[in-house]
Automatic annotation (TrEMBL):
Organism of derivation: Mariniflexile ostreae
Residue ranges occupied by any DUF2383 domain in the UniProt entry: 10-118
Alphabetized SUPFAM superfamilies for the sequence: Ferritin-like (SSF47240)
InterPro entries per UniProt: CHP02284 (IPR011971), DUF2383 (IPR019052), Ferritin-like (IPR012347), Ferritin-like_SF (IPR009078)
Pfam families, sorted: DUF2383 (PF09537)
Protein name: PA2169 family four-helix-bundle protein
Amino acid sequence: MEINKENKEIVNILQELLQKNYDAEAGYKQVMTKAKSMGLKEWLQAKARQRSEFATQLDVMIREYNATPADEGTILGTMHRAWIDFKTTLSADTDKALLEECIRGEEASVTEYENQLENVADYLPIKELLFAQMTSVKTALNAVERLEDIIG
């Protein structure tokens, strides 16, 4: 497939989501090391694996457009992980603070997917992939909000 202006726009969308998934995977791995609850650690580990799978799927799609996928996350993601380190250092309830940051991250992911879905409406395979990934992120967001209620 030749890279034309239209394809570049699609590749850019996929690259942005790829980087956001790298950020999410790194974030989940980071908070997993700080979590106190074993159940929470296991859940966070599963979410990190899921985001790695999302990144792999996006990587494959980018390569189908004859483009080279990004190999790392964003500066904003790095800054957010630094904020998590700072916040959990000051928090008396580390697990609650971690869950709050997971909620913020997942809300941002859902918004990003919703925005990008509008831009790929004419590209059915991409739209289906992004919709499936967004649905999984929404499920994770609902789960983390319930966990926060339980931990309380």
